[in-house]
Amino acid sequence: MRSTQGVEKMRVLAAMSGGVDSAVAAARAVEAGHEVVGVHLALSRNPQTYRSGARGCCTLEDARDARRAADVIGIPFYVWDMAEQFHTDVVEDFVAEYAAGRTPNPCLRCNEKIKFAAVLDRAVALGFDAVVTGHHARLENGVLRRSVDLAKDQSYVLAVLTPEQLSRALFPLGNSTKAEVRAEAAARGLAVANKPDSHDICFIADGDTRRFLAERLGKQPGDIVDAETGEVLGRHDGAYAYTVGQRRGLGLTRPAPDGQRRYVLSITPVTNTVTVGPASALDVDLVRGKAAVWLTEKPTEPVECVVQMRAHGETIPATVTVEGTDLVARLHRPARGVAAGQAIVLYQPDPDGDIVLGSATIDQASRQLVNTA
């Protein structure tokens, strides 16, 4: 395959969500001399149920915005129906993960299963060399790096991709800030120049995750238990409605003896129990990740790096060792609110802290000998 990072002309498929980023990415691909075809992914079996009002990326409104942008750019445009696969690989996975006591990241799963698996496979089968998207990340000689706009960086949700998938990807926006992208869109006459960024989960129309899960999983009453005393402090209608680190919406009427807030420490689906306790009990310094993906050569020795465990979360220095297909990260200082089901992403330590080394799905987080230095 021809290099996706060189200047040689390629035939590329531009995934156009209907937002400003993907529109400018497609325009830049054309400007770079590539043969570009735009495609919008129809991800909802009922588009009216997805977020609208310039908030989502999967509605009829978004499809129309993408088509208008393609017309302005002057490229062919198609809509691909990916609704059934999106429902299975993203929506059903989301529900199943919460039912299992984990906290999934649906945007990460969409990138992994839809945009850079199903779409890329179809694109290659149709003779395209690469897929171009509006993600804010840099890809240089096969190396995935953070965007220059750290506030908009999306390398975290791209770290699940394999080196082979990245070899057929183009991220034209990685060296630009969001303000620069919007200014360029306006200069190009793209109507989406000032369209708000998408927020929240696109397939939950009103943003109420608890209600969404309750409608699909039903009421499953259980106990809310104090971690320190074992006392039952209250009841819940479904452990799936809680996530590690949560402190609001617990419905507890009695304060802790010391008057401090209580937080969700763990969810146990087998007993349908939500365990709560003080903020200090959230501290962990050992994180286990499963199904690791390495964007550099798989390490044979412990790796000193920095890790990120939530989208736009803080980075923490760590020593990572490989255990078969999994990894173990020993954090150099404690982290809070680390939830199973999220991704742990490894970055090169300073001065090259923007290079992605690999990722894994968090399976367990625990407290060992916490280094408070």
Descriptive overview:
With 373 residues, the chain is an alpha/beta fold. It folds into 3 domains: 11-194, Rossmann fold (3-Layer(aba) Sandwich); 220-281, Adenine nucleotide alpha hydrolases-like domains (SH3 type barrels), CATH 2.30.30; 283-366, Beta Barrel (Elongation Factor Tu (Ef-tu), domain 3), CATH 2.40.30.10. The protein has 8 helices and 17 strands. The chain has helices at residues 20-31, 60-73, 83-99, 106-125, 155-158, 163-166, 178-187, 209-217, and strands at 11-15, 35-42, 77-81, 130-132, 137-140, 143-146, 169-170, 222-226, 232-236, 263-268, 273-277, 284-294, 303-308, 315-323, 326-335, 343-347, 356-366. The strands form 4 sheets. A 6-stranded antiparallel β-barrel has the order 12-15-14-13-16-17. Strands 3-2-1-4-7 form a 5-stranded parallel β-sheet, with helices on both faces. A hairpin with an 8-residue loop joins strand 16 (343-347) and strand 17 (356-366). The relative contact order is 0.13.
